[in-house]
Amino acid sequence: MKIKLLFLLTLTYSTFSIAQSKEELAAKEFFWGANDAYKNVTEIPAKWKNESAVVLYKNENYDFHKFGKNVTYTASVRKRIKLLDKASVEEFSEFTYTKRFRSSKGRFSWREKGNNFVGIKIVKPDGSETELDVEKEAVEVDGETKMAISNLEVGDIIDFYFYRLEPFKSTYAFGFDPVEVSLGEEYPIMDFKLFFETENDFFINFNSYNGAPELKQIETDKKSFRRYELVASDIEKNEYPRWFLPLVELPSYKFQVYFARSGSFEDRAMAFLPEKESIIKKSVTQQEVLDLYDSRFKPDGDIGDIKDFFKGKNYSSKEDKVSAAYYYMRHYYLTRFIEAFYVQEAKITYNPFIYYGNDVVFIQNQKQFIRHFTEFLKREKIDYEIVVAKKRFDGSIDDLLIEKNIEVMVKVLTPTPMYASFFGVHTSINEYSAQIEGTDIYLLSATKNKIDVIKRGKLPSSGYTDNETKKDIALAFNDDLSAIAFAITNSFKGFEKEAQLNERLLYTDYVKEDYALYNTESFLELIRNKKEKAKFKKEIDALNEKLLENQKERFKNNAQLEFNVKEAEDYGYSIDNTGRYGLDTYLTFTENFKAKGDDFLKKAGPNYIMEIGKLIGGQIDLTEKERKRTENIYMDYPRSYNYQIRFNIPKGYTVSGLEKLNKNVDNITGAFISNAKIENGMLVITTSKQYKNNYEPNSNWQQMIAFLDEANQFTNEKILLKKE
Known about the structure:
Elements: E1 3-4, H1 22-32, E2 53-67, E3 70-83, H2 86-91, E4 94-97, E5 115-123, E6 129-131, H3 134-137, E7 139-141, E8 144-148, E9 157-169, E10 174-175, E11 179-182, E12 189-199, E13 202-209, E14 216-218, E15 225-235, H4 246-249, E16 252-259, H5 263-268, E17 280-281, H6 286-293, H7 304-310, H8 318-332, H9 338-345, H10 366-379, E18 384-390, E19 406-412, E20 418-420, E21 440-446, E22 451-458, E23 468-477, E24 483-493, H11 498-504, H12 507-518, H13 523-526, H14 530-563, E25 569-577, E26 587-596, E27 601-604, E28 607-610, H15 624-627, E29 633-634, E30 639-648, E31 653-656, E32 663-666, E33 670-679, E34 682-691, E35 695-696, H16 701-714, E36 719-723
Parallel strand pairs: 1-4, 2-12, 13-17, 23-30
Antiparallel strand pairs: 2-3, 3-9, 4-8, 5-6, 5-9, 7-8, 10-16, 11-16, 12-15, 13-16, 14-15, 18-19, 18-21, 19-20, 21-22, 23-24, 24-26, 25-26, 27-28, 28-36, 29-35, 30-34, 31-36, 32-33, 33-34
């Protein structure tokens, strides 16, 4: 595994392509100059001698300064690492980074060029040092710059830094990207320092969690300048097992810096700012949440087209009307323009949106959606609340610190409460992120025209039957067993269909569905010029044909991997139901193909062995290390995987070995249940694997192991086709 600089500061770095500048020399002096207290540190504690590598020193720095409209942001990191085995040597044998960048911050940022500097030196066990000439030795490959380190060996120390100097202009409130990381990493760290330098107009939200050290202020000579540092030592390496949330369980820190030049911009900032720049904000109160959002979620938007849609329509309940409004808005503000986005991306025409007239309106974010959807609810005199939530992987709502981490949606107070989130092309009413299911939330509401009430609440959670993958697999051999035919019906609902919708549906599958439902015109129907329409149609048809061919080839390869066949011959695929109008509706598609018989059969004298257990797909095969887990278990959501396998037994053969296909492990954490029987010359196998909760305490881990092992063992089970 090669190291990518992108991950070291969650930034993209580059190098100067000219001789060393004043800034570049300053960067080198900053890390490796006369004041470097770690230049002679080479030894590690005996307790870490068997580690892959040990970080002798890690230093992160963030500087924020301004002069008039000009803002300068500097972010840098240095690591001095002792490599103790071949794996770590391989890890650091190549650096990959981008060489050029323009700032993405502030106004007109595309004009602002940033300078980035990289320094790498190798310290051999005898104390000799070699500084690499990064500019000379790096090469550009496929748009990336790569730096190979050929003479790295076990026992070496690699000492490197990345220094990013980014200037931009800002005349308004601006939030820098939040940083949220665990204190430790994959290697133990002897010494660590995090350093901040800011001045007036920069506001810091920062807090430490789960036992991480606190940020402390350092005295400075200037009242307008402020410095802070977090210092730690003897940091054990982190383990990152599956189903784990590091920010919830491990020592960590989170921060965001916000730039707001004056009082008016401070008021307009979409952030929980401290009272003044000299205060580090460590938490957010319930009242502060109310104060930030009291006027920002005021109902607003032109809903004339929605009113027109409802003319002449009657609904049996408020729930039906709210659901209809959500799906119509999804179409009116998004899916009716999808064709135009594809046309523009394919460069069929420069600006396809002109054919929609002058009233093209996109709803572009969750806050804009809230205002628009609540305008509809207000007109319909339907009560609602605004949900303010925080994703599970970032901790509880009580640890709220950074506004960007908030998820907002509408809770509609119909007799059966409903939830409306910012729509995507496939989202449903009552669908929201699995990461906020079951979490504590804030609920905002208004007594008049301004939000002035806040209270705590809790979001509902789905069950394992709500999120389902269901497969019906029918297979039959030909007479001489040389080929096997598959017919597979795949069905997904709940959160299990989210990724499948994006993967399995072409835009043509769903825009046509929406056009028919809402009686709206397609992109080509909007074009009145016949010659222009004919030209565009030819190019769009060619685009769609290419997309369809690529999709079919991709799905064929997926089927070959899923069922472990060398070649899926005569592959066919069709969508039966898109499942786009309800979280509990199924996305269903059918696949058909043929494969070689010997992909599944092994000759055993006159008989054949068939590895039928593999048809339920790959299962989790826990390592010994995983079995000794000490961490709690965090999964995305409860879910179930239900398979039915129908196998036509070849004429002249009987089946033995069914007893091994009947399994039953069922406990509070989950289950694996399978049943096999013969009906009318057909072997019918049903299996159900269930993850019953999205969280399990570590004390339940052994119960999880029980059903995970049973499912994995099933994939090893075989049947014998005995010649009669």
